[in-house]
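Subject: Sanity check before I submit

Could someone independently write out the structure tokens for this chain? I want to compare against mine line by line before I put it in a report. The sequence has 647 residues.
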Amino acid sequence: MKNISKFILSGLLTLSLNGCDFLDIVPDMIATIEDNAFSMRSQAEKFFFTCYSYIPYSGTQDGDPALLGGDEIWLSAEYGGGAPKQLALGNQRSNDPYMDFWRGAQSGRNLYRGISDCNIFLANIDRVPDISVEEKNNWIAEVNVLKAWFHFYLIRMYGPIPIKDVNLSVTDDTETTHVYRNTMDECVEYCISKMDEVLASNNLMLTAQDPSTQLGRITKGVALTMRAKMLVTFASPLFNGNTDYVGLKDNRGIEIFNPSKSEEEKTALWKRAAEACKEAIDFYHSPEIAVDHLYRFTGTQFGNISDRTRLKLSIRGSMVERWNEEILWADSRAWAGSPIQDQAHPRDFNATNANGQTSNRNNYAVPLKIVTGFYTNNGVPINEDKTWNYNARFTPRTVGTDQQYFLAVGEQTAGMFFDREPRLYASIGFDRGIWFGHGSTSETGQFPKARGASDDYSKNTIQHSWNMTGMWPKKQIHWLTAFSGSTTITRTTYPFPIFRLPDLYLMYAEALNEANNTQAARDEAIQYINIVRERAGIPDVKTAWDNYSNDPDKYKRQAGLRDIIRQETLNEFVFEGHRFWDIRRWKLAMQEYNKPITGWNLVGATAAEYYVETWIYTRKFTPKDYFWPIHDGEILRNKNTLQNYGW
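---
Independent answer below. Compare away.
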């Protein structure tokens, strides 16, 4: 991807066109620009990668609303966090929206300008004289996918949007330029038909033929996964016959959300989603591609480590091990280093270092409700497991040797952390929880000491490095990243994953369950859930619920399996930017975001004083908050643009 990054930087300065608000109307000098940009292959390639440059960043603190804009990671008042933090606090506004991807402001990328550049590229690529037909068709296919993806990203944020398949011109009259928002069904059909058209052309690369320059490019598999993600999103309750916005009509009297859909129409969209997911899975499972298994840590650099430590590294590595076998698409422009890995790291694991440590880190805090969502070691929710003492989850217990690879033996920690699924221990750092790697090869001896006692070296002491809950998103840090002393940091960075293979498995399970209320469909869905659970080190669905749940028939009901799939998705993709969008598309945000943000009593010196659930923040999420407001200036400029509900 070095070449891609180089061309993005050079192309942005010379080829990105300044237009008129979101329409990005093509100015008079476009002919001159087109003559230069498409006069030869090398110039056209710059424009090609400029189209790529508009892809919204994944896993960046300021550029990705999903990383810090929800309830998965919480920040102190003293730490920055920018526009995403304002989203999390519920401070969105219409006069200057945070993370405005419609106009490109407040840390948002201008996706309509990105669409305009895609349109310019597609209208002019045939003029390039020194390019092969094969490469030209490949570029056309990729840019069409980008164009559909930019539309999808906007729809996910704003609901129905104006589709911009061709650019407007300064010669167009006011009636033409004052566009309306398309209906939700029109938006869905546009995105999916565009993807279908590209996939039918067979012009995309099957795989990155040259990994040194093409990783991160859109291949056939990436496009298949994109289409599956689009359809699963569009079939979800927020977009599929949503009745919350009945009466939201433009000045033509058209309901843009299409709320009057029959159950058959809703189900039909789920069926299309299931077919798209299965097509993507079959592609990756084919002998030609052979991406048919999940990542396992097989490294030997740590010697003969235990199976439990190896399992934790497999779970973490699925996210942080560069381009591992299950990563289908990653953001090659957003290599997770600083600040993500710094802020996900506790102050220190060493009393001497902590006393002199002044670097800014430790600020990413995990709320208790996220920890609560992980299963017990029996593979069921903690409030369903009939063998797990839910009422004693805050009561301190002394750690025995049976927990030595997860908890510090002889120390006390909350009942919350005993006998939980390996994904919790791999993903969450917490007081007296084992933290392998980062310069230490001890499987049992390194752990944070975060209570308020004088000798607890991981506790908060510096205002700019303040963890609000006493828990960290360990999963985001590569195990080879090491912090030595006050300022010495050696980071092992990684491209932030956008799609992993479990994404397809769990989306397919969800679509199957929603499309077909039959036991046969549920049985097939469970097969794919179990692939994910097997790598996670927990029992299969049937074994778990039959033997340990107080609701043993849950997986046999459509609604029950729906809950299982959703929780499996949240646990598998924790801290990867999925929860932010999934909670919304499922229409669970009013339920989840209105739960208080809580953590431990950080000043408590003893275990009994520390492990007390302590309130931090409660936001008020209402139906209007599901979708971004359109900038007030855009509403004033174009009388035909309908503002979103509540704004």
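---
OP: Matches mine. For the report I'm noting this point. Residues 1-20 have pLDDT under 50 and may be disordered.
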